[in-house]
């Protein structure tokens, strides 16, 4: 039961990550391969604040999310000048740089040794150390994210995002400030991804750079594509299936060392098959141009 | 210190140049980022290891020259075959569907992840080595130390660079590859089969990657994730040299090798990847056509 709840918490965190990436990739059509960098900064900022200065995880979460948004500006900036595969490569590179900062800035992040003993969230003095309590907290955050994303994509702002995706020049010709919108979309996406990172850190109570590799970014992108590019329901379904399904491998009695590799192989194969057979995903409407 | 860093930079650069060249040869005909190139490099090293393994476990440690030649042959041919298989099973269906560059890129990422983890599953995650015998002290040369293996890497990669250059410039197939690169439609009008040319470019590019993988595994260790960093360096080298340009890829490889190794003179070696990507991002934002690129 504990295990099942744990899977649900992890699914919730991935749903937030997938939704925030879908806004950038699926709705605005900006290929991003460095999404884990945002959750990395959110996780590290709020953990370090809590460990070194005794800041409450709640305040840490907000500061972490703002730091993520700031990084969103940095990673989003190349999107003003670059397109397509070059943009993908640049965001990928920025993801690698953030990862290697977490790994090599040992005096602050403790590098590969990671940060143990991160305090948990508490509400009205009650520490959320029970998994089901934490599940409720994550559930609230997932609900808020879904609500905000729905509002964004159904607003005039969301229409501009889709117009950038479909035809950027036409959108500019209509007098829309595409540069501003692209940066904003990165800021919003990064903000939510940083929240997800912070939720993860205060749940597991230990983080190290290996949770925020570029493979992680690709896994999140795979969830977006699998569920459906530019579909909120799709992202929820995609994240949940891709978190839950590999867990089934454990029930087949596979040792964990082999299971990790088998999971990656399935992800790789799924990515290939999706690209050949259905690049827009299960419920998607948009495919990469 | 500085002469040693320059020597290390040139040796790293020669490996980057080989990977970048293989990548560029493929890029010129297909025009997308073939990320799975990195895993072909890894596969080359592992195939050679598989052949030499029986001999390596021998206590005497002396592997006969014939076993070495056979191991290198298997590694290189296997890498070439892997390139062909990837092209046939993944890229050919995508070309039939006229997929966009990004879709190709993501599919090749999928291939990369799949094969890398397959290798990890077969051989395990531990670090293996192709080195044999006792470690000899290197030669002292202008204040730097260079080992026999490093000289071998330099000579072989230099030879491969020259052979490839002559092949592209002088042979009929090389000319066909240049033609497809410049204008695939015009090339098919004059009777060049684009599919055959793409196939040839995958064979040549993958063979170069396999050779680079074997060469580096003589110098350092092999592990399933070894292809990732080198592939990124190869791609970065091709872009800063000027994407699609063969001299650019060579130049970019050496430039990157030197920049990285001189960069760690002041800061720790863990930042190598960051230095490479910082250079890439600066180039993409300031001079996207690269040093030797044309447009």
Summary of the model, kept short:
Chain A is mainly α and 289 residues long. Chain A contains twelve helices and two strands; from the N terminus they run H-H-H-H-H-E-E-H-H-H-H-H-H-H. In chain A, strands 1-2 form a two-stranded antiparallel sheet.
**Overall pLDDT level of chain A:** 87
> Which of globular, elongated, flat, extended, rod-shaped describes the shape of chain A?
globular
**Secondary-structure arrangement, i.e. CATH architecture of chain B:** Orthogonal Bundle
Helix coverage percent of chain A: over 70%
Q: Kindly, what is the distance between the CA atoms of the first and last residues of chain A, rounded to a whole number of angstroms?
A: 44 Å
CATH level-3 fold name of chain B: ABC transporter involved in vitamin B12 uptake, BtuC
Major sheet description of chain B: 2 strands, antiparallel
Shape of chain B: globular
Please report the number of helical segments of chain B.
11
Give unreliable regions of chain A as ranges.
none
Radius of gyration of chain B: 19 Å
Number of domains of chain B: 1
Strand content of chain A: under 5%
């Amino acid at each position: 039961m504990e295990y099942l709840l744990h899977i649900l918490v992890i699914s919730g965190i991935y749903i937030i990550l997938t939704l925030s990436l879908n806004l950038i990739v699926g709705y605005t059509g900006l290929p991003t391969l460095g999404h884990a960098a945002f959750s990395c900064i959110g996780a590290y900022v709020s953990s370090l604040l809590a460990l070194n200065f005794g800041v409450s995880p709640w305040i840490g979460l907000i500061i972490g999310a703002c730091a993520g948004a700031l990084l969103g500006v940095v990673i989003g900036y190349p999107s003003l000048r670059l397109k397509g595969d070059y943009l993908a490569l640049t965001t990928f590179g920025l993801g690698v740089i953030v990862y290697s900062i977490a790994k090599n800035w040992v005096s602050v992040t403790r590098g590969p040794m990671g940060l143990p003993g991160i305090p948990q969230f508490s509400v009205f003095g009650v520490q959320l150390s029970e998994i089901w309590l934490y599940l409720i907290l994550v559930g609230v955050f997932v609900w808020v994210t879904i609500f905000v994303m729905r509002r964004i994509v159904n607003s005039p702002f969301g229409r501009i995002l889709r117009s950038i995706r479909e035809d950027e020049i036409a959108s500019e010709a209509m007098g829309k400030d595409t540069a501003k919108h692209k940066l904003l979309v990165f800021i919003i996406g990064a903000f939510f991804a940083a929240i997800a990172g912070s939720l993860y850190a205060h749940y597991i109570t230990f983080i190290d750079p290996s949770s925020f590799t570029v493979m992680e970014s690709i896994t999140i992108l795979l969830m977006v594509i699998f569920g459906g590019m530019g579909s909120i329901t799709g992202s929820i379904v995609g994240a949940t299936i891709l978190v839950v399904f590999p867990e089934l491998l454990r029930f087949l009695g596979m040792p964990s060392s082999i299971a990790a590799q088998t999971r990656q192989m399935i992800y790789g194969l799924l990515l290939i098959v999706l690209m050949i057979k259905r690049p827009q995903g299960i419920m998607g409407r948009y495919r990469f141009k | 210190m500085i002469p040693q860093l320059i020597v290390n930079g040139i040796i790293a650069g020669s490996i980057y140049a080989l990977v970048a060249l293989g990548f560029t040869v493929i890029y010129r005909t297909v025009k997308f980022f073939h990320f799975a190139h990195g895993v072909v490099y890894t596969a080359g090293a592992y195939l050679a290891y598989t052949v030499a393994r029986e001999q390596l476990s021998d206590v005497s440690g002396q592997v006969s020259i014939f076993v070495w030649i056979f191991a290198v042959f298997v590694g290189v041919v296997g890498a070439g075959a892997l390139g062909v298989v990837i092209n046939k099973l993944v890229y050919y269906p995508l070309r039939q569907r006229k997929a966009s560059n990004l879709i190709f890129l993501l599919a090749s990422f999928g291939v990369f992840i799949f094969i890398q983890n397959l290798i990890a599953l077969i051989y395990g995650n531990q670090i293996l080595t192709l080195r044999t015998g006792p470690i000899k002290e290197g030669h002292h040369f202008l204040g730097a130390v260079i080992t026999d293996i490093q000289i071998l890497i330099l000579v072989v990669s230099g030879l491969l660079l020259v052979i490839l250059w002559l092949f592209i410039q002088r042979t009929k197939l090389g000319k066909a590859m240049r033609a497809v690169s410049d204008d695939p439609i015009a090339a098919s009008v004059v009777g060049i089969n684009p599919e055959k040319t793409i196939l040839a470019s995958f064979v040549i590019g993958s063979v170069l990657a396999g050779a680079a993988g074997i060469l580096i595994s003589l110098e350092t260790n092999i592990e399933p994730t070894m292809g990732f960093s080198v592939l990124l360096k190869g791609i970065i080298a091709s872009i800063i040299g000027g994407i699609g340009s063969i001299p650019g890829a060579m130049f970019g490889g050496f430039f990157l090798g030197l920049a990285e190794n001189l960069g760690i003179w002041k800061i720790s070696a863990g930042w190598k990847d960051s230095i490479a990507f910082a250079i890439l991002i600066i180039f993409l934002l300031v001079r996207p056509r690269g040093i030797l690129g044309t447009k």
